Amino acid sequence: MNARRPPATDTAAGGRKRARKVARTMKQSLKKQGRQRVDELEEGRDSFEKLSSGRLQNAAHRLEVGGGEPTVQAKADGLVVAVSRKGCTVRTSGHDDRRLWFHNSVATAAVGDTVGFDPDLGADRALACVHPRRSFLSRPDPFEPALERVIAANVDLGVLVVAPVDDGLRTGVIDRVLVAMQRGGVQPVLVVNKCDLLSGEAAVQAAISPYSELGVHVHLCSAATGLGVGPLRAQVQDRTCVFVGHSGVGKSTLLNVLWPEAAQVTAEVRSRDGRGRHTTTASRLVSLPGGTRLIDTPGIRSFGLWEVDADALRGWFSEFDTPAANCRFRDCRHDAEPGCAVRAIALGEQPDAPSPPRAVAPARYAAYLRILRSLG
Ligand SMILES: Nc1nc2c(ncn2[C@@H]2O[C@H](COP(=O)(O)OP(=O)(O)OP(=O)(O)O)[C@@H](O)[C@H]2O)c(=O)[nH]1
Ligand SMILES: [Mg+2]
Ligand SMILES: [Zn+2]
User: Fold this and answer.
1) Ligand of minimum distance to the alpha carbon of 300
2) 276 CA closest ligand 1 atom index
3) Is the Cβ atom of 228 under 6 angstroms away from ligand 1?
4) For 281-292, what is each residue's pLDDT tens digit?
5) Is 223 in the pocket of ligand 1 (CB under 6 A)?
6) Is the CB of 222 under 6 A from ligand 1?
7) Ligand 3 centre from 144 Cα, in Å?
8) Checking CA distances to 292, which of 135, 299, 351, 359 falls within 20 to 30 Å?
9) Which residues are 295's β-sheet partners?
10) pTM of this prediction?
């Protein structure tokens, strides 16, 4: 270790004060970037513009730390490959892993971040800054909803893995995660794993068709038989991808099938109810030769939305845009307002009306209403 003792004048109280200041500025900066105006954000992400309907994503999750007065000088950069409650593991260009503690235990960096640090300082003081993020996937902390938890940063693809239940698909988590991915500038990919367990594909096909129509790539896969694994591998090749989904859907197994070098731990689902055992307990980034980076994450129980209010929510359901032009009220929430064209089309209340370029799937409209009501 290159740890160096703090200078003699650096009292413990002074160190703590400085650490608190860094943590505060990091937090404030993170908050500020989350509120970036949409028109200030970076353009040029082609692949899912159909889904986002040309909207610009929040690709500039900027985090400049140090505020006015720099406290720690960044002398080296590293990639965050793992994060725990109190710190992160950073891979340096020399490929050695180094553990750095967050200032004041405030988790400012996420897996996939590039951080600046001072290799000459001790692990508790060395973290200097988190470099600007080009994309991120975040949600409120399930236990402390006032805190934003970034699941992964600087990812190209967000691979949402779901598994069939009784030959059908529960889509609730899909709509929420899609909102979060669009908000963070992450291109969504939907993987229906465990297709070997299906006795018929009809219900699953019907459930996924609204998403394919939106332009989301959907892969029907089985990590057990290898079905659909080739096209998925081709899509994620050379990119940074985060795998998310409920526990037990087979995220880690899929990663192992795609790249055995990923060597993720897996475990059987509970025989009692078929649910997962939360086997993966921390996010981890694996770099493969050729530039592919895979991030496995712990199973999610529920997925809240960070800083999405009713106005923002409408915007993330891009298929509403065209019919919304015919709503009676300009600020229609597409809920119970009279003359709502979105509702009329979704519920088939206007069979003679000219169909818009993109129809609104009833299941997507129902999902929208569920999320809208959950926003309180
Ligand atoms: N039949 C079948 N079983 C699968 C498939 N993929 C994974 N499994 C099984 O599902 C169980 C759970 O797989 P994991 O890979 O641990 O699931 P996970 O999503 O990583 O779960 P967490 O780490 O808890 O979030 C294991 O017993 C796997 O063998 C599949 O395609 N078909
Ligand atoms: Mg796992
Ligand atoms: Zn409306």
Assistant:
1) 1
2) 24
3) no
4) 788 898 888 889
5) yes
6) yes
7) 33
8) 299
9) 242, 285
10) 0.82
Helix (H, G, I), strand (E, B) or coil at 347: coil
What's the burial of 331, exposed, middle or buried (CB within 10 Å: 0-12/13-18/19+)? exposed
Q: Indicate the top mutation candidate among 222, 251, 266 to test ligand 1's pocket, ranked by most ligand atoms within 8 A of CB.
A: 266
**Measuring CA to CA, which residue among 214, 207, 147, 148 is closest to residue 187?**
214
d(CA 104, CA 267): 35
Model confidence pLDDT, tens digit, residues 82-140: 998 789 999 988 778 999 998 876 778 999 999 999 999 988 889 999 999 999 999 99
The answer to whether 152 and 133 have CB atoms below 8 angstroms apart is no
Residue bearing tokens 């160096």: 4
Q: Which domains does the chain have, with CATH numbers?
A: 12-134 (no CATH), 151-296 (3.40.50.300), 310-374 (1.10.40)
Q: Over the stretch 198-211, which tens digit does the pLDDT of each residue have? A: 998 899 999 999 99
**For the chain, how far is it from start to end, CA to CA, in angstroms?**
50
- Cα(61) to centroid of ligand 1, in Å? 32
26 neighbors 145 (Cβ within 8 angstroms):
no
Q: Is 82 exposed, middle or buried (0-12, 13-18, 19+ CB in 10 A)?
A: middle
Q: Is 188 helix (H, G, I), strand (E, B) or coil?
A: strand
Cβ–Cβ < 8 Å for 306, 34:
yes
Cβ(278) – ligand 1 distance below 6 Å: yes
Contact between 154 and 134 under an 8 Å Cβ cutoff? The reply is yes
3-state secondary structure of 98: strand
Residue owning tokens 């720690």: 72
Q: Which residue carries 């003081």 as its tokens?
A: 125
- Which among 105, 28, 32, 103 has a CA at the least distance from the CA of 67? 28
